Amino acid sequence: MVCRTLTHNAAIPAEANGGVQPSLAVVDGGAALCSVGGLWLIRDERLAGEHVPPVCHVVPLPAVGQEVEFVGREVRMTVREDRTIVVACTAPEFDNPTNVNFRWRFTDGEWSEPSPRRSISVPLPGPGSFHAEFVAIDSRGHQSAATSLAIMVMPRLWERGWFPWAAGLVVGLAAFAAFRFGSRRSARQAAHLRALVDVRTADLVHARDSLEQRVAQRTGELERALQQLEQDHAQRSQLERELQQMRRMDSLGQLAGSVAHDFNNLLTVVIGNVQMLELDLAGNALASDLTQRVLEAAARGRDLTQRLLAVASRQTVVPAVLDVAVALRAQVGVLRDLMGGAVEVVVEVVDEPLRMLAAPGQIDQIVMNLAVNARAAMPDGGHLVLRAARVGGLVQLVVRDDGVGMTPEVLQRAFEPFFTTRVGRGTGLGLATVYGITKQLGGEVEVESEPGRGTCFTFHFPAVLEDPVAAEPVLVPRPPVATPASERRRILLVEDEPDVRRAIRMLLESWGCAVVGEAGNGGDAVRLLAETGLAVDVVVSDVRMPGLTGLDLVHALRAMRPGLPIVFVSGHTSSASLVAELAPLGIELIAKPPSRDEVLGAIERAMPGARSAGA
Fold it and tell me: 499 or 414, which is more confident?
């Protein structure tokens, strides 16, 4: 017996017919159906007499990504990828097995049109319970009973009710873990950043401190440089003022020297002639009184020239060791009389020697000039304080008053010669004389003054720190040496001014000297001695003359007659260097107009016997 395949759809598995692919064979006028239950024999006469409608069998087919589980007439599907179920159906039809149509519907939908399709693909909307119904229609139009298939689509993992909670829990745990991890990581990063920030902050603080230190250092350097610049500017201004003052004083000195020389020559003529008149008019009281007044006026004129030379620092200085403390104490009485009862004079000195080199009367002159100005500045009374002390290697002298003070403009011109604020009452030489004497003594002076707060002068002079020693050789006035009346000195008189020469000659002769020769300049004097061999005891000569002057004349005369005594009588005694050079040579120097004692004393001291006795 040959069986043929009941259907031609290879997609229907054997499970559709109990595990055996149904097949049919014609045997002895009947049909034999092979099945798991054995061989079924179907007679033709029965098939012709009874029509059996087809039986529809439905089988779900698993697709890719699906798991199918049969539970009775229910299929459970676990869909992982696509919610689509493929359902296959079969219905054997013995009369015409190949001519079977099928209809189907899904859940409560509409029935489909009859179609020979034996499998359908149904997309499922989601997890849940569904059912599919199928009927088979044979070639005669008979419809089989509906065969239903219950489909349970299992939800995906994330579609299950607990999944959101689990997912939320997992996400929460993950978030918490991430948060903890992030927190720890953030904490580590924060700690690392804090460490970096701390390091960077420390670097910045160090850099800031270093910068501030450098800025402060540089600022300090700039401030010191500015202060130094200001000090340099102030010193330069002070030096410029002092230079201008020195130039003015130098100009004034030159003028004062020239004026002093000419004025002293005039005074010499005046004094010489008046003294001669005084001798002739000795019995006339009125004439003697008049001549005495003339001589006093001439003496004041001589003092005036000395003041001019003091202002210009050009008078001859005869230094001696002076104790400033003793000099100030000695002046207290005079100052109190000068200042009057309204001004109190206070002297403050230390109990130790305050020695310095100065000419007699120079410190007194400084103090007196300042006291006169202080008295004018304190019309209603006040205090005049004199203070002296040792400051290092200097002697400090302070003169302070409680007067009206000076404005900056007046203070700047205080030492200017002939400048005065007391118009009609002052000469303008007081402070100029103070300045000139101070410079001549090698000292410095500072002035502090403000309107209404008084004035303070501070002097600093070089101190003599050790015991007094012999000063440099200078001409120091000494008492005249007594000369016998019968011993008349033979004198060669050298003077370029005829009137002055005549006046000096008369004075010398009236004083018992014999003028044996006269010359108008040094050259004439040298020729006179060389040509005539004139016997002279002393040469009395001027210093400033045409031709040979000063040391030139001394050297020329001493070359001819070694040891010849020479006395200089000069109206311009400003050359301190000349004084220092003449002293070792035994040359006497006196100022015009000379007095009788000065001339006779200088002549006797210049004689060889007097020098030997003095030695």
Answer: 499
